[in-house]
Amino acid sequence: MPRLLRLLILPVLFLAALAQADENLPKILIADPYIELHTGPGRGYPVFHVAERGQEVEIVKRRTDWFMVRTSRGVEGWAPREQMLATLEPTGEPLDLDEPARENYMSRRWQAGVMAGDFSGASLVSAFGGYAFSDNLSIELTLNHMPGEYSAAYSATLGLMHVFVPEWRASPYFTLGTGVIHIEPKSTLVEAEDRTDQIGYVGGGVQFYLTRRFMLRTEYRKDIIFTSRDDNEEVDEWKYIGFAFFF
Amino acid sequence: MEVHRLRLLFLTLLLASVLPGCAWFGRGRDAAPEAVAAAEVPTGESREQPIIDPQVERREIKRPQIDTEDFEIGVYGGILSIEDFESNPVYGARLAYHLTEDFFLEATIGQSRAGKTSYETLSGAAELLTDSERDYTYYALSAGWNALPGEVFIGKNRAYNTAFYLVAGIGSTRFAGDDLFTVSGGFGYRILPNDWMAVHFDVRDYVYDTDLLGEKKIVNNLEAHLGLSIFF
Predict the structure, then answer these.
(1) Interatomic CA distance for residues A81 and A90, integer angstroms
(2) Is the pTM here over 0.90, yes or no?
(3) CB contact under 8 A, B181 and A95
(4) How many CB pairs under 8 A join A and B?
(5) ipTM here
(6) Of the four listed, A102, A246, B80, B86, which is most buried by Cβ atoms within 10 Å?
(7) Residues 61-120 in B contacting A (C-alpha not used; CB under 8 Å)
(8) What is the CATH number of the domain that holds B195?
């Protein structure tokens, strides 16, 4: 087990080094009478400093809707997004934060998320990632894990997803694809074998734009498992609720 | 056993390598739009010298590249009490994404090893589980709420940002050769010694149904761990 720990620590240290790397910070000009600097990235942290109109400050980093700025005297503090929107870039134009919004959904390329539901009586945990070719059509990879009472199943499927009217806030979609499913019966059952079969699905769902880059999703799939026996199995796959973000 | 240890390693490496990469996709998009070359418009009086030679410098429009640190990656270690199977060390990794100052999403994977039930110890020889079946791994996908953000003070000149948070999630536990759908919940305390690092203390309860010892029952496995993570 310590071997695993060592493997885990290395990437963390690597990322720590990366996080400290760049030092070419964007500068902005304060246009409001002043902006308040908080000690932390949250509304409750006390205001300990103000930067006045006309001062030039550097943006060190951003965390959620808070920006860490550094004044010319080297004072570092956190300012909220609403105050940053009233600042100017050195060119004299208002600061452009490129905020993801609903309009940006149309220009999205990548989308990913997790969902939870029911797979023919078993619990279902699902993760998916997709790439959009156009406003309507995207390709999606879904990984499912279904720990059930008598068996556990894993599936990986690749399919197409067609969003009918992507500009709607609640937008229905159609999906179709294929993949593999691996079923492991519980170890307490006797005479049960692991098996891997091909799976095909057709389904539909609704995605709901939440805010910024976040969406909710609900989905139903009718799965057909192509078994090696005489009959194929048909399974209802419900994903009651899921969370997705696009970038 | 090997396969599933490999699977855990693969997932860990995937998390560590692919997810930071995802954040970079966003960066590429911020590249400055190329300036459009002004088209030369031929006019009738083109041979004449221009009256005014405009000395306008082309302004380069560039969207500020702000370093967004909404992701948090880290490792942890602690003690996991597996019901009926003793308490043992647990190691794990965490990836979190901060949605707002109040809410975050978190994915964790962990690994431990079960000890012996008191029955096995007392009877001497009877083994309920094989060696590989004692491996205990889990993953959890959780949502968290920073319920009590604040600051702590050490002495007169040092203040550190903190948060007491609550988490709840779903996932799976692999133990005794089976995958068990697991609901987890708990609380944690996070202290930030600087802007990009956090020290966590967490307590979690993992709940699942099992019929491992003959009768079906609900199992509560409590975990306490200390963790270190960085924002990127």
Answers:
(1) 18
(2) no
(3) no
(4) 152
(5) 0.79
(6) B80
(7) 61, 63-70, 73-75, 77, 89, 91-93, 98-101, 105, 111-113
(8) 2.40.160.20
